[in-house]
Design a protein that fits this description.
By secondary structure, this protein is mainly alpha-helical. The chain is built from four helices and no strands.
């Protein structure tokens, strides 16, 4: 499967995002989200993380998708 797909599922688990698209790690860091290496990552969805860190889900998902496309 090509790795150029977009993240369009807000219920996708963070561990799946980070495993499939490691180029998104700098986006998490930029948004000051401590998800990289966090023990909760296998249980939190993209939506959960945005709520937890008070980050706009729409903006965050756009930034993740940009990182994926640029890779």
């Amino acid at each position: 499967m090509a790795q150029t797909a977009a993240i369009d599922d807000p219920d996708m688990l963070l561990c799946d995002i980070l495993r499939r698209w490691p180029q998104t790690i700098p986006v998490f860091i930029h948004y000051k989200m401590l998800c990289v290496g966090c023990a909760i990552t296998p249980y939190h969805t993209l939506r959960d993380a945005c709520i937890e860190h008070d980050v706009s889900e729409v903006m965050f998902r756009r930034a993740l998708n940009r990182a994926i496309r640029q890779h």
